[in-house]
Every structure is written in structure tokens, then in C-alpha cells.
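stage 2 :: seqdesign
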């Protein structure tokens, strides 16, 4: 019961973190918010147009930022998928605020 309660508190706290800042910060926050654990490989099945709507920007800007993140080695993109080999790299680059 204690483990379930602790996990619920951790997830609830994530919802209250600020998701403002640069587009790269908002995309990273989205990725971290939707991962149960902020480590290890992840596969995010989402189209850029959908991600753009979620982070409040246009598809072209999202594409540019994702390509920059890909050049840093944080992720790789395929049609309708974003593969993240090590989510902890993104978590380390964007520590939680507040």
C-alpha cells in the first residue's frame, strides 16, 4: 500500500510542474511526463502535428527542434514514432523547475 501511495504522489506532483519555457523544454517535459520512469529506452508513437498541438506550436517548429534533439543523440525519428534510447539524457538536460 505504501508503494502505491508513493507512486501516486510522484505522478500527481508531475502534473503540477510548469510546462512553460522554450519549445525544446516543452517537448522534453511532454516526454518525461508520459514516461512511467524517466530512464531507459522509450518509444513514443505520435505524429508531429499532434505533438505540435500539445506543446502549442506549429509542426515545422516541432520538426526543427526534434531534429536538433536527434543531432544531440537524444532520440531518433521515424514516421509516427520517436524512439528515445536513454530518457535519462533528456531528464538530465532538463531538470525539474521548482
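stage 2 :: out
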Amino acid at each position: 500500500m505504501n508503494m502505491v501511495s508513493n507512486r501516486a504522489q510522484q505522478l500527481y506532483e508531475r502534473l503540477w510542474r510548469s510546462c512553460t519555457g522554450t519549445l525544446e523544454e516543452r517537448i522534453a517535459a511532454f516526454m518525461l511526463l508520459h514516461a512511467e520512469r524517466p530512464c531507459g529506452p522509450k518509444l513514443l508513437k505520435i505524429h508531429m502535428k499532434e505533438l505540435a498541438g500539445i506543446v502549442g506550436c506549429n509542426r515545422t517548429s516541432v520538426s526543427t527542434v526534434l531534429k536538433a534533439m536527434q543531432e544531440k543523440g537524444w532520440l531518433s525519428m521515424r514516421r509516427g514514432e520517436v524512439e528515445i534510447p536513454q530518457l535519462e539524457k533528456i531528464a538530465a538536460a532538463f531538470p525539474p523547475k521548482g
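stage 3 :: structure notes
- The CA atoms of residues 14 and 33 lie 7 Å apart.
- The helical segments are 2-16, 23-33, 48-55, 59-71, 87-93.
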